[in-house]
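## tool: complex_structure
## caller: assistant
## args:
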Amino acid sequence: MAESPHDTGTAPLRETPLAALHRELGARMVPFAGYAMPVQYPTGIVAEHQHCRTAAALFDVSHMGQAELIGTGAAAALERLTPADVQGLKPGRQRYGLLTNEEGGIEDDFMVANLGDRLFLVVNASRKQDDFDRIAAALPPGLRLARREDRALLALQGPQAVDVLSTLAPDVAKLSFMGIAEMTIAGVPAIVSRSGYTGEDGVEISVPDERAEEFARDLLRLPGVAPAGLGARDSLRLEAGLCLYGNDIDATTSPVEAALTWTIGKRRRMAWDFPGAERVRQELADGPKRRRVGIRPEGRQPARAHTPIHAPGGAQIGEITSGGFGPTLNGPMAMGYVAPAHAEDGTALELMVRGKALPARVVPLPFVPHRYAR
Amino acid sequence: MAELRYTKDHEWVRMDGDTATVGISDHAQNALGDVVFVDLPEIGREVSAGEAVAVVESVKAASDVYAPVSGRIVEVNSALAEDPGLINREPTGEGWFFRIEPRDPAEIETLMDEAAYAAFLESQA
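## result:
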């Protein structure tokens, strides 16, 4: 028996401030984006996934990049790199956006929040160096990008997450979905946003590195909270229909192809003043060459990333970009790109898994309904 | 009951009369995590030792299962289609994968016994 190869780097792996805690909890550590990260704890991916859907799961996402953009005109400066409406973001609010390149491809997806006196950014671990270099290089004089390599990031996700966290910090319950605030939790200065990557209600909490372990232990002592690893994080986000950068979106896919046009601000779509606007405008008018869709294989067999997608009995019309088994869905699920003629919900497809055609259908996303606190 | 022999790819094999029953080790099922699907070989297929003949899919990934010995596939565990979790719960019992009629039953003797496999796992840790 041999597992398919994945992430094989040679550089020494970085650790998050919670590395010792993960090992104490019995985590299996794997390389991910240059970090040693917990893929699962002894309970296993399915149990951790179900726990997040029914109670509250704690994820260490400290590998992600955090930064603050400080100075007058920060929002306008950031808009030179993204089609998101950053200037319209009110204090205490967070938004999901894309960093685009001149060719209209996606350089990264990210969260931007207005903390009143500065913008707070969270980007992908694998892209943080590039992203922050590009942002810093694009800043006019007087603006400063402060990379927060000194902060950990924890995600507490699940229907009980906000209830249990409120016992330590009642203000958390006042946040609405995509609300953000600075507050002290269990004596630790934190930036809390009501957001996440699981489709469940929950929060992401930024805390100083040196307080992260005691803070995580405080959260794990709350009733109903259990640790969950990257394995469950991946099955949860795929059930929620959320993109993984590097799989579902990359420097070649456009916001229109990726069905992320909604991240483009209305004002931005009038002015067309963002990198790659020409391609986005043309694809909105004429239609893109391919579209990201949800796909459900028949039966129980998963189809993984890079599986070719064919029209039934016909030519290849696309490729799976993320695929696996959904524990809550209780079946296989995938996302991928198909030619627009095959992108309608209900369209029959064939997935070529190990040389055999696996029947599948285009389905609406998400696979499991979101339960955000609207 | 005959003893189990192991491969370096973490399959186990056991002679039951004229046929060899094959599965994956407890170590392997634990490393894989929750099994959600198994792709089993066709009955009658002639296989060589080391040939990929089955695929086991966990939530996380797909892994090949290799034939520990050469021979002909004579039976597959159809219970796995309904309940692939058997592989996690009883890896060396009801969670078996397939049965081979070995070309040369002596080939099994060349595989690791329980103690040798334990030492092998230790060396890999």
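## assistant note: The mean pLDDT of chain A is 96. Chain A touches chain B through 22 residues (CB under 8 Å). Handing back to user.
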